[in-house]
Inverse folding.
DNA sequence: AACCCGGGGGT
DNA sequence: ACCCCAGGGTT
């Protein structure tokens, strides 16, 4: 079912986009690798936050071959601070798959792209359209917002059926001629014009917008509320001896999987932490309290933490936990850490000097 | 279908 | 304090 003429909605967006498009680096290329990399970075991430990481990563790994050959520890270190660290792991998986199984060439269709680890409906549509000109509509937070307002769609955008409904509508709207431009335009429009608190007075779609006409701009899109945050308490022990520090890489299905940290006990207070790990008891004679980070806030958790610096004499003997290892203090900088620990280090000069010389 | 996964910025 | 951000994976 080819569209001969475009929907007026699409025409207006494309016209608006000609005058308002930002000059973003991933819009200057057709390289599917660079587009893919940018899209993974931008998942649930604002452009301003992702941009420095885009420059760093494209410089460190200019091609998919470079990324596939990368050491995962190095990749995690580059991803440090960006959040949602499973993206980094899936990035590496997909790069290796593309190099090893696909001769370094990315799949060129939505239905093939979506099979890649870390590539879901949005990202597959984005790559298929931007790199290969396929008319698959992107449906991201911007698109939900614009379509819900303009067409008066009441479906809860967190409901399972929402994606299907909004995608079907977007599929009707996307032109067969330069679908990539439409996808860029609708997201840019959502970001700059039809934002969560929009400036309807300057909107080119004001005369035909359902939400504006019905005075329901601030009620659309409908989105159910997030559940309250879980409160957690972490006790950190920076155990240092003979120029080395005790660390481990978080592995459990939990926050910060793949990142590195100091000896950590999840407990509301020091005494309970010691009771849980009796080897700590004789160490505490060498411990000094560090300035604790403030409450560290994640999307669904609040982490309240405390930390002790434990500098042990060389002849001090104790049995370290089996899942922890010693590394040179100076090498800690090279590992990917949670921002909570970056803040802890920044706020404590003594710690900073141990770890950064 | 429900739940989990970061960090930062706007209001 | 709450919302949102160029979402995706697991169970």
């Amino acid at each position: 079912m080819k569209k001969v003429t475009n929907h007026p909605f699409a025409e207006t967006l494309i016209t608006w986009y000609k005058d308002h498009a930002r000059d973003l680096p991933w819009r200057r290329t057709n390289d599917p690798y660079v587009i893919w990399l940018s899209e993974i970075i931008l998942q649930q991430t604002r452009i301003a936050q992702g941009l420095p990481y885009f420059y760093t990563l494209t410089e460190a790994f200019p091609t998919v071959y470079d990324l596939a050959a990368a050491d995962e520890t190095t990749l995690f270190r580059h991803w440090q601070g960006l959040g949602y660290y499973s993206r980094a792991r899936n990035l590496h998986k997909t790069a290796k798959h593309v190099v090893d199984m696909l001769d370094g060439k990315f799949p060129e269709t939505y239905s093939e792209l979506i099979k890649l680890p870390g590539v879901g409906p949005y990202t597959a549509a984005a790559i298929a359209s931007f790199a290969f000109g396929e008319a698959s509509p992107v449906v991201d937070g911007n698109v939900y917002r614009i379509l819900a307002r303009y067409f008066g769609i009441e479906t809860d955008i967190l409901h399972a059926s929402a994606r299907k409904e909004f995608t079907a509508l977007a599929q009707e709207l996307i032109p067969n001629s330069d679908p990539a431009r439409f996808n860029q335009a609708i997201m840019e429009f959502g970001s700059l014009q039809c934002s969560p608190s929009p400036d309807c007075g300057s909107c080119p779609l004001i005369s035909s917008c359902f939400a504006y006409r019905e005075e329901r701009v601030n009620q659309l899109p409908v989105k159910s509320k997030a559940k309250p945050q879980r409160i957690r308490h972490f006790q950190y022990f920076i155990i240092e001896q003979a120029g080395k520090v005790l660390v481990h890489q978080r592995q459990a299905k939990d926050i910060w999987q793949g990142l590195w940290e100091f000896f950590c006990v999840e407990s509301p207070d020091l005494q309970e932490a010691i009771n849980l790990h009796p080897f700590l008891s004789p160490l505490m004679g060498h411990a000094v309290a560090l300035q604790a980070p403030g409450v560290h806030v994640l999307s669904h958790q609040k982490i309240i933490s405390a930390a002790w610096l434990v500098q042990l004499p060389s002849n001090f003997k104790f049995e370290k936990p089996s899942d922890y290892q010693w590394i040179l203090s100076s090498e800690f900088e090279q590992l990917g850490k949670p921002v909570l620990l970056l803040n802890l280090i920044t706020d404590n000069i003594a710690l900073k000097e141990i770890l950064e010389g």
Notes: Chain A has two domains: 8-219, 230-356. The longest strand of chain A covers residues 230-241. The mean pLDDT of chain A is 96. The beta strands of chain A are 230-241, 244-249, 260-266, 287-289, 296-297, 301-312, 325-328.
